[in-house]
Amino acid sequence: MARKPLLLSTSLLVAGLVPAASAQVQEILIDFGRINALSNTDPLSGDVYNNIASPGSTGYSAANPFPAIADLANTAGSSTGYGFDLTAVNNLPPAGTNLGIGGFNATGNAGLAYVGSAGGDTMFVLNDTEALFRLGDLDGSKTYDLTMYNFIGNQGRNDSLWTVGGSTLALNPQNNTAGTVTFSGISPDGSNGIDILFEVDDTGTSAQQGHWNVLEVNEVGGGPRVLIDFGQNGSLSNTDALAGDAWNNAAAAGGPDFGSIANFPTITDAVASDGAATAIDFDLVSVANPPVADPIGGKVGIGGADFPADASATGFDQTATRDTMFVLTEGNDISAEFTLSGLKTDGTTYDLDMFGALPADRADTLFTVNGQTKSYDPENNTSSVASFEDLLPDANGDIVITFEADFVAGGSFAQGHWNALRVTEVPEPGSVALLVAGTLAGLRRRR
């Protein structure tokens, strides 16, 4: 069943929070259509397109697979290293014709929001079929604005629906020459990707056909990232072998536990992933419900370097993911409180990604930040990340992180594990906006 979309006037620019202008790094255009109507270069602007193209009006199947793109070109024609693929289809009938490429409905520019060879042909989804697409291998330090456009001529259709990051936007394709929907300020997930669910409003009528003609991706410059590895002195993360990123190490000088709060290896003036200095500090400030007040009874400390599995899907290097910081919540409902300090107080927000793993049975690890609680199961974890987005520091420039295990569910296995932390500065708050280009057509250079 299709979810309820955000429905707004088709003549307005509406957003929950409109951010200040930010620097566009590059733009990517994808045309969904037929091989005989490829969009190679926009004759109006010179923009280069990527083509998701099929021979004719046909559904995707094993015999006619989705034509994924492994390396998208930007509008200048340069390689980005980013990919686009169909990753899952729900409720596809045996005939396999509920998702595919439809006919060509316009020629030339035809007064559309995008050049006619891109805006005039369409990818379709029918009835209750849901298609999940993924933009992959993105830059985790950037944010992305995703704009969708559809057009089907004078044919009655239900609204097409897209869902990104839990928010759903709708657009009706019938005679749509200017309307678009845009998700703004989207940060990639822990695996540096963005998932897009495409479907049609399958209620009410027989016109249950969703359409998607163009995807526009605008990459927006993000702030610096700070990477922290919790581990032993013998397995430091100095330079990330995956990306060349610089790391900060909260490393135990010896022994498995900190012994006291004062012995936590505080990080002062952390370096960003590019090696530049920041004013960000990270410290252990309190432990709730310890057996003794201080020392902390061996309940918070550094474990062994005992998880050699490849967790690169999280975007963290193995030298960071293989060893762990622990909190032994069992018995006393113990939790540890950390503070990120030295953060900006000018409206800048921060995204946090936590990862933890070890090859043993454990309860879920829990993190609470600004009233939100996120979790993952650390047992043989190679992909799950606890992520917080758009966190606003307090007036002192602090963000407080509570680290614990699921005490009620875990029993004797209530041991939390935290191997790595990624802190990403977001220059302006993310938002989800509905852009309808009817009143903005003069500003769009693809007209």
With helices defined by DSSP (H or I, 4 residues minimum), what is the helix count? 3
- Helix fraction, binned, reads under 10%
Intertermini distance: 35 Å
Oligomer: single chain
Q: Mean pLDDT, rounded to whole units?
A: 79
Main sheet makeup: 7 strands, mixed
What is the overall silhouette? elongated
- Portion in strands: 35-45%
Give me the count of strands.
Answer: 29
The overall number of domains is 2
From the alpha-carbon coordinates, what is the Rg to the nearest angstrom? 24 Å
Structural class category = mainly beta
Strand order of the largest sheet: 1-29-12-9-15-2-3
Low-confidence spans: pLDDT under 50, at least 5 residues?
1-22, 429-447
